[in-house]
Specification:
alpha/beta, 5 helices, 13 strands
Length: 268
């Protein structure tokens, strides 16, 4: 004969009912609060009504930036996705980085960092087509209207995709070497095979060859240091080109004269 489970005492049964009722009431309150917040968040008072622009504004006005980015902003103060908003502002020409923050109750504050151009970027070695791309001080390639560039002395970098940072660092090391011969690097080129070449503001072209950066700099330094010995023999003849890709010296071509330094050396 089956035995029946002992019945709960009346007091325990009442406590269980009270706890259950309290939990259900709490869930109902949370749901009501959530609905109320959702309703309030959709009120016009929380629509984004002002955007404050701070930071670098050398190439854009705050008005221009708002006009370009605002149409891409979706949502109100609560629902706006800050990552999407950041990308909207960073899509504006010359803007490198944007930090977007909410300001209660219906404003945005945007801190901008502009690209600082360090060089012109042509791209693949040998490309002749005009380009609206530049390299910033971080070695990053970006697009902008070249007419907005104030520095007319920016060098040109010509190399494979993904090498802009390396090339910017390299031209920074080459500049003081050629400055010792009163020349400025106008163009630095890196071939797909890793061979370096420069064009100077004097019109001369110098083949630097391949190797590690330190090896290329060492060859350049040796060339600049010994070139006066060659030039002293041929006064009034400017340098037209030089080839440092020889094992034991370099070949030079002067305006109106052709000579070499250990021209018997074999090219690397």
């Amino acid at each position: 004969m089956a035995t029946r489970a002992p019945a709960l005492p009346p007091s325990a049964d009442i406590r269980l009912m009270n706890v259950t009722a309290a939990v259900l009431a709490a869930i109902g309150v949370v749901a009501l609060v959530a609905v109320a917040l959702l309703w309030a968040a959709q009120r016009p008072v929380f629509a984004v009504k002002a955007i404050r622009i701070d930071g670098d504004l050398a190439h854009n006005s705050a008005l221009t930036i708002r006009a370009n980015a605002a149409p891409r902003l979706a949502g109100n103060f609560f629902t706006l996705d800050l990552a999407s908003a950041r990308r909207a502002f960073e899509s504006v020409p010359w803007v490198r980085q944007a930090i977007v923050k909410r300001v209660w109750p219906n404003r945005l504050r945007v801190q901008l960092e502009e690209h600082r151009p360090a060089a012109l970027w042509v791209g693949a070695a040998g490309a002749d087509e005009a380009s609206d791309k530049l390299v910033n001080s971080y070695g990053e390639v970006f697009e902008a209207n070249l007419g907005d560039v104030e520095d007319d002395a920016l060098p040109t970098l010509r190399g494979p995709e993904g090498t802009s940072a390396h090339m910017l660092a390299m031209i920074g090391r080459l500049r003081p070497e050629f400055a010792a011969m009163d020349a400025h690097v106008d163009t630095l080129e890196l071939s797909g095979r890793g061979s370096w070449r420069v064009e100077l503001d004097t019109g001369a072209e110098v083949e630097l060859g391949r190797g590690s950066d330190d090896e290329v700099i060492a060859r350049t330094r040796s060339f600049v240091a010994t070139l006066p010995e060659v030039r002293n023999r041929y006064q009034q003849h400017p340098l037209r080109s030089a080839d440092l890709r020889h094992n034991a010296g370099y070949a030079v071509r002067l305006e109106g004269v052709s000579t070499s330094a250990d021209a018997a050396g074999k090219k690397k």
